[in-house]
Amino acid sequence: MRAFVAVVEAGALSKAARQLHVSQPALSQTITALERRLGVQLLVRTSTGVRATDAGTTLLGEARAVLARHEQALAALARHTTTGVLRVGIPLELPPELLPSALARLAEAYPETRVQARHLSSVAQVAALRAGELDVGLVRERPPGPDLDAVLVVAEDVGVLLAAELAEKLGSPVRLEDLAGLEWFAFARAGSPAWYDELAAILRSHGLDVGPEVPEEQRLIVELKIPAVSSGGAYAFAPPEWPYPMPDTVRWVPLAGRPIVRRTWAVWPAASHRRDLASFVAALEAHRQD
């Protein structure tokens, strides 16, 4: 019924399939099976999309009522399926609107759930998830293995922070090759190996020296990016919506060709049945789609 409602509201199988995160053939088979089970034709398929038949219009109203009642039942049972606290792992430099939007939706759906946030690297978050110390994490590399589920919630075209005078000289957008001779203000590889290796490979492919690895015990302090690049001898990567104060001595500049995309996944234990967690992840995903 949920698939049928999505198809009618979208007006096309392809659009509904994207919204439901299934393939179009699988969605078509679902609708065909529903029609076969009910013994009536529900949709008329045309070259421009689909529309509901008279029987389909009747089912649409009933299906919406059934689904609404289903959600009410789940909400009523929420206090039996949550622990009251949702422990969330947070990386640095998230888009400023991501968490407030998702937390507002969570508070509306599950007002009794309290959120505890911890700033941790991707590796530390995955370890905490597997140790039962986090309920959901926001990480910069998708972890392998069947024990954790993941969904992409952010994809950002990374730009570069430069001293204002240097940014003026290089112009906008700046080519990665033009950063040759500057020092990369990097982070410790141990915190997010896959993301570090991806960045390093891109830099090397553009003829840039990645420099020595940052010691594992040295934490990346975002506020240090500003003084590091202000002198004009270094550069640092940052997303376009960098959620920190930017002085006049530093500029954010986009990269020519958009060579670097930073992705953030929401990750949680595959065995979890928490409805508030599912609501929080759905809100994160909805923010990306919006």
Secondary structure topology:
Blueprint: H1 2-10, H2 13-20, H3 24-38, E1 43-46, E2 49-52, H4 54-81, E3 85-90, H5 98-109, E4 114-119, H6 122-130, E5 136-139, E6 148-157, E7 159-163, H7 164-170, E8 183-184, H8 193-205, H9 225-230, E9 234-238, E10 250-253, E11 261-269, H10 275-289
Parallel strand pairs: 3-4, 3-5, 8-9
Antiparallel strand pairs: 1-2, 5-11, 6-11, 7-9, 7-10
Helix pairs in contact: 1-2, 1-4, 2-3, 5-10
GO molecular function: DNA binding; DNA-binding transcription factor activity
InterPro entries: LysR_HTH_N, LysR_subst-bd, WH-like_DNA-bd_sf, WH_DNA-bd_sf
Organism: Amycolatopsis pretoriensis
- Arrangement of strands in the largest sheet: 4-3-5-11-6
Q: Which architecture name of the largest domain does CATH use?
A: 3-Layer(aba) Sandwich
Sum up the overall morphology in one term: elongated
- Return residue spans where pLDDT drops below 50 for at least 5 consecutive residues: none
**Radius of gyration from the alpha-carbon trace, in angstroms:** 24 Å
Mean pLDDT score, rounded? Answer: 90
The biggest beta sheet is recorded as: 5 strands, mixed
Helix content: 40-55%
Structural class: alpha/beta
Q: How much of the sequence is in beta strands?
A: 15-25%
Number of strands: 11
Per CATH, the class of the largest domain reads Alpha Beta
GO cellular component, one term: protein-DNA complex
Keywords: DNA-binding, Transcription, Transcription regulation
Protein name: DNA-binding transcriptional regulator, LysR family
GO molecular function, one term: DNA binding
